[in-house]
Amino acid sequence: MDCGVAVRAGSNLPAVGGYNQAVILDAVRRATEGVSRVEVAASTGLSAQTVTNIVRRLMDDGLVVEAGTKVNGVGKPRTILRLEPHGRFAVGVHLDPSVITLVLLDLAGEVVAHRTLRTTPEAKASRTVARIVRAVLALISRAGVSPSRVMGVGIAAPGPIDVTTGVVLNPPLLTGWHDVPLRDELADAFGLPVILEKDVTAAAIAELWMDTAGERSDMIFMYCGTGVGVGAVSRGEVMRGFSNNAGDIGSVIVGDVSGDDADEPSNRRGRLGWALSPRLMVEEAIARGVVAGDAMTMTSAEVASAFAEMMVSDSDPRVAGLVDDAVTDIAQAMLILVNLLDVDHVVFGGPYFAPLSDAVLSRVPDMVMGSSLYRLPHAVTFSESAIGDDVAAIGAACLVLDHTLSPRAQGLLIPR
Questions:
Q1: CA distance 271 to 277
Q2: In this structure, how many other beta carbons lie within 10 angstroms of the beta carbon of residue 179?
Q3: How far apart are CA 37 and CA 209, in angstroms?
Q4: Cα 325 from chain centroid?
Q5: 14-83 fold
Q6: Tens digit of pLDDT per residue, the chain (416 long)?
Q7: SS3 sequence of the chain
Q8: Neighbouring C-alpha atoms within 13 Å toward the C-beta of 245
Q9: β partners of residue 292
Q10: Radius of gyration of the chain (CA)
Q11: How far apart are CA 146 and CA 166, in angstroms?
Q12: CATH number given to 88-206+393-404
C-alpha cells in the first residue's frame, strides 16, 4: 500500500483531529512490518499524547490493532501497531464496453471478492445500472461482509465523463449511454459515497497504490481493452487534465495515412485506437483465414473469444503479421509519449494485453530506446501490470480508500 511518498506531517491543533487521524492511519498502513507509537510520533511530528489518543480511537473503530512488541535498544519494549485489513472495505466497478468487473477490497488493498458481467453496449443505461446494483449487493453479501463496513463505491468508466456532476457523457463504444448521472444513481441505490473516475486514470491509481517500492512516480499506464488509453503519473500525482478526461490516445497516428480524410476505412488503421481495436484485429484475422465469422456483427463476448482463439496461433505467419503490426504501432505511440512526458516507467495492462505481452515486452523497449528519435537521457523500464485484468476496477476501489483514508490539506479548513 506504500505509494513511495513521504509520511505526511500532522498538527497538534485541536481543530484538526480528523486530519491527524488520517495522518496516523496513513503512517500505520505504510509500515508493512508494523510501527510503534513512538515511531509514528517521530514521523508525523505529532505529540506522543496526540498519537496515543488517536490510536485508541482507531483501535476502537477496528482500523488498527496491536500486534506484539519490539525491543529497540535499552528500555521498555514497544508495542507494534498494524493495520486491520478487514476493518473496512471498498467496492470498485469498471464499466467496460465488453465486460463489467466488480471487486471488493480490504484496507490493505487485497481483493476479497470478484465478479464479472458481460456488458450489452446497446442496452439502456438504466438496465445496466440496475444490474450493477444487484451485482454489487450480491458481491458484498457472498463475501460475508457487513454493509456497515463498506466505505463507498468507486466507478471507473470510459470517457468522456463529468467528474463534477458525476455524469457519464457519451462514451463512443457504449451506444446506450448519453448524459447518464451514474454517480448519483448508484449513491441513491447504495446509500454510500460514490466516486466516478475515468477508467485509465483509475488503472494508473491502482498501480500507484500497489507500488510499494515507489518505482512508478513518473509513469505511463497503457490500457488495452475494447478501446485503448493511457493514464499518466508525474511526481506521484495522476495527470487528469482540465476536465478530468486526459488519456485518450486513440487518435494518435501510428501508420501511413494517405489522402485527406482520416476517417476513410482505408486510413483508419493509421490511428492507434483502430489499429489496436480487438474487433478490427479479429476482422483482419478473418480476412486472412485464421478464424471464421463476421467481426462486425459479433457480440463483444464473441470478439473476445475470437481474439483469444487467433492469438493461440501466434506461430502462424498470418497471425505473426498482425502481432508485428500491433507491436510496431505500440512502439511508435510509446516513443511519442515517453519523449513528451519524460517518464521512466511504462506499464501495460488490460484484458486484451496478455496475448500481446511477450511480443511487446521483448521488442518495444529496443524499438523505443533504440530509435534515432529517442530524446531522453535515461532508460525507460517497460513492464506488465502485476494487478491483472481487474486493474481499473481495483483502481476504482483504491479511489475510495484514498479519499477516505489519505490525509488531505483541505481537511484543515474549518467550516464557517
A1: 10
A2: 11
A3: 24
A4: 27
A5: Arc Repressor Mutant, subunit A (1.10.10)
A6: 333 334 444 433 333 347 888 888 888 877 878 889 999 999 889 999 999 999 999 998 888 999 888 877 666 788 899 988 899 999 999 998 888 999 999 988 899 999 999 887 667 899 999 999 999 999 999 999 999 999 999 999 999 999 999 999 999 888 889 999 999 999 999 999 999 999 999 999 998 877 766 678 899 999 998 889 999 999 888 999 999 999 999 989 887 655 555 454 444 568 899 899 999 999 999 999 988 999 888 887 888 888 888 888 767 898 898 899 999 999 999 999 999 999 999 999 988 898 899 999 999 999 999 999 999 999 999 999 989 889 999 999 999 987 777 666 544 444 43
A7: CCCCCCCCCCCCCHHHHHHHHHHHHHHHHHCCCCEEHHHHHHHHCCCHHHHHHHHHHHHHCCCEEEEEEECCCCCCCEEEEEECHHHCEEEEEEECCCEEEEEEEECCCCEEEEEEEECCCCCCHHHHHHHHHHHHHHHHHHCCCCHHHEEEEEEEECCCEECCCCEECCCCCCCCCCCECHHHHHHHHHCCCEEEEEHHHHHHHHHHHHCCCCCCCCEEEEEECCCEEEEEEECCEEECCCCCCCCCCCCCECCCCCCCCCCCHHHHHHEHHHHCCHHHHHHHHHHCCCCCCCCCCCCHHHHHHHHHHHHHCCCCHHHHHHHHHHHHHHHHHHHHHHHHHCCCEEEEECCCCHHHHHHHHHHHHHHHHCCCCCCCCCCCEEEECCCCCCHHHHHHHHHHHHHHHCCCHHHHCCCC
A8: 15
A9: none
A10: 23
A11: 27
A12: 3.30.420.40
Euclidean distance between CA atoms 329 and 349, whole angstroms: 16
| Position 25, amino acid | L
What's the grid cell of residue 40?
509514528
Q: Which sequence spans correspond to the domains of the chain?
A: 14-83, 88-206+393-404, 249-343+351-384
Q: Which residues contact 373 (CB under 8 A, 6 or more apart)?
A: 335, 339
